[in-house]
Amino acid sequence: MGQQFQYDDSGNTFFYFLTSFVGLIVIPATYYLWPRDQNAEQLRLKSLRRVHGRCLWYRLRLIKSQQSIIPLLKKAALLFGWAVFLFLAYKVSKLDREYQEYNPYEVLNLDPGASMTEIKKQYRLLSLKYHPDKGGDEATFMKISKAYSALTDEESRRNWETYGNPDGPRATSFGIALPAWIVDQKNSMLVLLVYGLAFMVILPVVVGTWWYRSIRYSGDQILINTTQLFMHFMYKTPNMNMKRLTMVLTAAFEFDPRSNKEATIRPTDNIEVPQLIRELGNINVKKKEPPFCYPYSLKARVLLLSHLARMEVSEDIEEDRRFVVRKSPALLQEMVNVGCQLTMMANSRGGEPRFHAPRLISIENCMKLSQMVVQGLQETKSPLLQLPHFEEEHLRYCISKKYKVRSIQDLVSLKDSDRRSMLRFLGEEKYDEVMGVLGSFPHITMDTKLQVLDDEDSNNITAGSIVTVTVTLTRKRMAHLKGIPMLPFRPVSSKQGDASKAKTKVWQNKNKGPKKAAKSKKKKLIKKKPVVQQTKAEKQKQANGNVAGNEATPTLKEDEDNASDRGSESDEAEASKDTPSERDEESDKQSDTEVDEMAADDEEEWKALQQSIQRRDRALLETKSKITHPVYSLYFPEEKQEWWWLYIADRKDQTLVSMPYHVCTLKDSEEVELKFPAPSKTGNYQYSVILRSDSYLGLDQIKPLKLEVLEAKQVLDNHPQWDIPETEEEEEDQEDSDGIEESEDEEEDND
Predict the structure, then answer these.
(1) Which of 420, 536, 563, 695 could be 631's S-S partner, Cβ–Cβ 3.0 to 4.6 Å?
(2) How many CB atoms lie within 10 A of CB 145?
(3) H or E segment at 322?
(4) C-beta pairs of 286-289 under 8 Å, 24+ apart in sequence
(5) Long-range pairs for 516-520: beta carbons < 8 A, 24 or more residues apart
(6) What value does the CA radius of gyration of the chain take, rounded to a whole number of Å?
(7) Which stretches of sequence are listed as region Disordered (predicted)?
(8) Cα separation values, 88 from 24, 74, 83, 362, Å
(9) How does DSSP classify residue 464?
(10) What's the distance, CA 75 to chain centroid?
(11) What is the maximal distance between C-alpha atoms in the chain?
């Protein structure tokens, strides 16, 4: 049976194809792209005005919602698509059906089953009417003759009944849903031009762009080159202070115009950036280590530090600064992830580690810098400056001997009469606004449950077992805590004011006294090992009750101050050398020596680690919405959601026990499981469950976690399930020995 291909001369079939194609585009696009009710956004912003009205992100969002024409363009495009779809659907509904079943009775206007006499009579009447010699239509006469033959001729009737056609089986006809004018020779050049443009230019460009972006970015839209940069410097500097951390952050390739088109280098930067450098002071401008010396890195560093200092800049610089600030929280989260990956890599090695994992202080500094960026505050500033209308000169009223208010929690727990008296420098209207903002701040309570899952005795922790700590987080507003004299779990910011006096500023090295102590402390920090690799002496001290149950738990702020002091003192000890170039050369030599000690298997582990970082976000996609509560931030240019880090640490040894879990879905309450291997030696251990905000200063919490590790149960060697030969030789030996024993038994019986 032959086949025939033909184009649609009338163009009717093409309308069916076109209608289906347009419908498949318009219907999903309307669902996903139709702008939501702008009144709803206006109402949402109006509900947030009382608390967030002074925030930079709120003012920018309000202006954008009022002036944006993108929703109108989207609506116009979608309405145009629906108009085309409805027109095509109407066109299709008016098309005649051309493909109908052939019925000779209908052609002769007879009822099915008519007699032969009626068929001949009707054929005679129609022939006289439509015969060409009588002036009739030739095509109609041919149809009548064909129908008469199908009903009177025996072979034609058999073909009609069998194949549906009096002429017998026909060639299979395939219709192409394209009008005939497309293949017309007159239009060949136009058709080829459109075809080449669509399939040889547009499609490759779209696919290439998508592929190029997919291989350059990770799941969090962070450049893979940036991730590798962070990995290099966190490996090179395990104990990273805030000053060094800021330099590494602003060296990210997201701020390089060659890697990111959003980043810009303006001609006015040669004038405005040096002016900001003079105002900021010492920011290591002369450091020659790449990429810190590159222009894009220096500009990003200056813009970030000016943001933390709350300095006013010109409009062009302000636009670039908002870009740097907006990108920083996601980059810091990536640094936390990289630090955790390196920690896991170091702890997974058997025996002595080949390199030092990033210290706990380095990872916590990343978290703290995220808080500082969101709130636009330097490290040594009081957390009270997060509130509106608070200035530096007002803090002397708060930290006076009468009130001793140095943290957000102190201000909440103060009596209302004392609070009004202390804030008398504010008017009634400003005071109410401060109280509204203070009442919106989050307060989290933590409930922990310690157990060993998949074990017969889940309450007892044995050496080497997998410990699961279930932490239940409950979020409430500070407004619910008014009148409560003390908050549960001592907050980390309870000694912020004292620390701001005692500590030196982050960007300056003024104190030269404790240099001698710095050397010994630095040595201790270097000799520390992860939790799973403690020395016997350290574990014996812990087992002998060095961490007693009634011992006072230090606050997170005190430990943080001690660790940061150790880091700053070590930096000052390094700074006491002759010249900066000598310090850089020595640090480079040390890092090069460490890198040279890595063997070939280490390089393979590095590659595996990089691949795991690239696949991490794809495996950790969450189905829950990450929209929690908007953060109150006076100087952050984008609406930031309230997220937290939750982890377990050994603050005495400055090591991570469990990897930080990024809590992004905490609206009211959430349950999080933290797992870690128990120490291999028995004894009592003192850990800490730490909750850190990524947006607020002074709201971090710590809760002690005591572990009593018991001796692991011994596995019985004579258990029948273990009596399995490992090799064929052992099996044969066992059979031979069994045969010898049987023969000996038979001889004894015979005797």
Answers:
(1) 695
(2) 16
(3) helix 315-347
(4) 286/580, 287/247, 287/580, 287/584, 288/581, 288/584, 289/584, 289/588
(5) 517/569, 518/566, 518/569, 518/570, 518/572, 518/573, 519/573
(6) 40
(7) 487-605, 718-751
(8) 13, 21, 9, 63
(9) T
(10) 30
(11) 131
- State whether the Cα torsion 219-221-226-230 is positive or negative: negative
Beta pairing partners, 462: 710
- For 229-307, list the strands marked E by DSSP: none
User: Do β-strands 655-656 and 644-650 pair in parallel, antiparallel, or remain unpaired?
Assistant: antiparallel
Over residues 562-589, the pLDDT tens digits come to 444 444 444 444 334 433 344 444 444 4
Cβ of 455: how many Cβ atoms within 10 Å?
15
Omega before residue 580 within 30° of 0, cis? no
Tell me, what's the pLDDT at 320? 95
422: which 2 tokens? Answer: 């202390």
Can you give the length of the chain in residues?
A: 751
Q: How far apart are the first and last CA of the chain?
A: 95
Secondary structure of residue 286 in the 3-state scheme: coil
**What is the distance between the alpha carbons of residues 82 and 215, in angstroms, rounded to a whole number?**
36
Considering only CA atoms, which of 569, 506, 504, 501 is closest in space to residue 283?
A: 506
Q: What is the pLDDT of residue 177?
A: 60
Q: DSSP of 365-413, one letter per residue? A: HHHHHHHHHHHT--TTS-GGGGSTT--GGGHHHHSSTTT---SHHHHHH
For residue 300 the two structure tokens come to: 């990003």
Place of tokens 């393979």: 604
- Is it true that the peptide bond before 725 is cis, omega within 30 degrees of 0? no
Helix axes 242-250, 224-236, angle to 10 degrees: 160
Amino acid symbol at 514? P
**3-state SS class at 557:** helix
pLDDT for 375 beyond 60: yes
Burial bucket for residue 441 (CB in 10 Å: 0-12, 13-18, 19+): buried
Q: Indicate if the alpha-carbon torsion angle 602, 604, 605, 607 is positive or negative.
A: positive
How many angstroms separate the CA atoms of 241 and 565, rounded?
Answer: 10
Q: What residue has token string 């309000």?
A: 62
- Label residue 660 left, alpha or beta by phi (over 0 means left) and psi (-120 to 50 means alpha): beta
Q: Has residue 533 got a pLDDT over 80?
A: no
Instruction: Please give the full DSSP string across 677-725, using - where no structure is assigned.
Output: EPPSS-EEEEEEEEEEESS-SS--EEEEEEEEEEPPPPPPTT-GGG---
Q: What are phi and psi of 633, to 5 degrees?
A: -140, 120
Question: Can you tell me which residue has the tokens 């310690």?
Answer: 450
Going by the DSSP 8-state scheme, the letter that residue 223 receives in this structure is B
> Taking the alpha carbons of 355, 359, 362, 367 in that order, is the dihedral positive or negative?
positive
Q: Mean pLDDT, to the nearest integer, of 72-98?
A: 83
Q: Return the amino acid letter for 278.
A: R
CB 660, CB 595: distance < 8 Å: no
HSE value, Cβ hemisphere, 13 Å, CA-based, for 717: 0
Q: What is the mean pLDDT of residues 294-302?
A: 94
Q: 3-class DSSP state for residue 639?
A: coil
- Whether the model clears a pTM of 0.85, i.e. scores above it, the answer is no
- pLDDT tens track for 636-670: 999 999 999 999 999 888 889 999 999 999 999 99
Q: Is 28 helix (H, G, I), strand (E, B) or coil?
A: helix
Evaluate whether 309 touches 321 at the Cβ level (below 8 Å). Answer: no
